[in-house]
Amino acid sequence: MALSDAFPAGPANDRITTTVLSAPFRARTYAAALYLALAFPLGIAYFVCTVVGLSLGLGLSVLLIGVPILAATVGGVVLVSIAERALARTLLGAEIEPPSWKVSEASGPLDGAVAVVTDLAVWGALAFVLSKLLVGVVGFTLITVVLSVGGSLAATPLYYDAPGTSVGLILPEPIRRELSLVVPWEQFEVGVSFILRLTSWEVSTLPGALAMSLVGVAALVVGLNALNAVGWVCARWAELTLGWTGTSTVDATDAS
Questions:
Q1: Where do the TM regions start and end (predicted)?
Q2: What was the pLDDT predicted at 256?
């Protein structure tokens, strides 16, 4: 049996290859990048306000002052979840239907409090709001690495010969390592030894700069696909936590 029979090249493989290579040319890629970029400042604000509100509300609830603080915090979480639901739909293509809030069917303050505590939609919104900071940190780190590494390498031909600029692997001094394997044999020692020496490598010619630029383009393609993957995970997380009554049947390839 030929190797090509074991790993047939079909439409699915062609579709995956096209999806990966076309990432820099799709609007959804940059929509996901925008979503992740916004997640960092929004995540900080959500986390601080929610944690402070819950802490104050629970701590002061014995004095009854904390009850309106808790109510305002939960109300803020609900409002944020509504805005985040629209944001996930617009930028990530998430399919989220608005949940049925139990508190809207409450007949009194006590019934409303019980409805809030037992409503899975409220707990889902709270989990999403608190997790937004983690999403923001991951997104900010990924975007920074993709732009700084991939962008700088791709632009190497533009600045490699600028005065005072060094492009490449610049080491303060060469790195030298010796790898040895010695086996005792009667009264002798038989072995082999290898010496590895790593020195600085600097781009000084246009062909070298173009080669470095190709490496940067490849890094950008990989990084943008990573952004798409993180955006797909965020869309599924939003569907899970913000739309308990909705469906989440979006195909993974639609997040690209």
A1: 32-56, 62-83, 133-160, 206-227
A2: 41
Q: For the chain, report the end-to-end CA distance as a whole number of angstroms.
A: 36
Cα distances (Å, whole numbers) of residue 154 to 24, 148, 208, 210: 13, 10, 12, 8
Residue 1 binned pLDDT confidence (cut-offs 50, 70, 90):
very low
106-116 pLDDT, tens digit each: 555 555 566 66
Q: Which residue type sits at 17?
A: T
Q: What is the pTM of this model?
A: 0.74
CB distance 157 to 146 below 8 Å: no
Sign of CA dihedral 68, 70, 72, 75: negative
CA 95 to each of CA 23, 42, 102, 132, 199: distance values in angstroms, whole numbers, following the listed order: 21, 21, 22, 19, 53
| Amino acid, res. 240 | L
Q: Where are the domains of the chain?
A: 14-165+218-255, 168-202
| Amino acid letter, 233 | V
Helix and strand numbers (H, E) in the chain are: 9, 4
H or E element, residue 95: none
**pLDDT value at residue 63:** 79
> Which secondary-structure segment (H or E) carries 168?
strand 168-169
Find all residues with CB under 8 Å of 169, minimum gap 6, and list them: 200, 201, 202
